[in-house]
Amino acid sequence: MSDVRFNTSIPHPARRYDYWLGGKDNFAADRESADAIAAAAAVLDAMPAGSYLVLSHVTYDFLPPATAAELNAANAARNVEFRPRSRAEFTRFFDGLELVPPGVTSVAEWRAEDAPKPRPSTETTGVYGAVARKA
Questions:
Q1: What is the mean pLDDT of residues 90-106?
Q2: Residue 126 in contact with residue 59, Cβ under 8 Å?
Q3: Can you list the positions of beta strands (E) in 26-89?
Q4: ∠ at Cα 37 (122, 39), nearest 5°?
Q5: Model pTM?
Q6: Burial of residue 77, with CB atoms counted within 10 A of its CB: 0-12 exposed, 13-18 middle, 19 or more buried
Q7: Which end of the chain is less packed: N or C, by CB atoms within 10 Å?
Q8: What sign does the dihedral 105-109-114-115 (CA atoms) show?
Q9: Count of CB atoms situated within 10 Å of the CB of 83
Q10: Helix (H, G, I), strand (E, B), or coil: what is residue 72?
């Protein structure tokens, strides 16, 4: 019987730190996540105070699990290097910044109060977005 408590396809903070500290036995998801965070940090370091960071990223969070599994399988079968991110993974890009309301949310819901109706659904767009200010 296999141990299902350990999923190497989902990045883990401890394994990311191990990678950053020079650990040799890392999983692809951890390396990719750590590299993305480091790239974002380099951009943030170069930004002057008062600057804004605007990001969006694809997610499978709004999809039924079976649909997300089908998309992951299709990407893997075609060798597509594609990485949707969870809300928590996406939110990490804004560490140390002040999120502008409404914060991290689906782009379909981003300040949609006065937008023409009907709006696309979160499932249809499948994208998180956020704006944050560097103090």
A1: 94
A2: yes
A3: 52-58
A4: 110
A5: 0.73
A6: exposed
A7: N
A8: positive
A9: 15
A10: helix
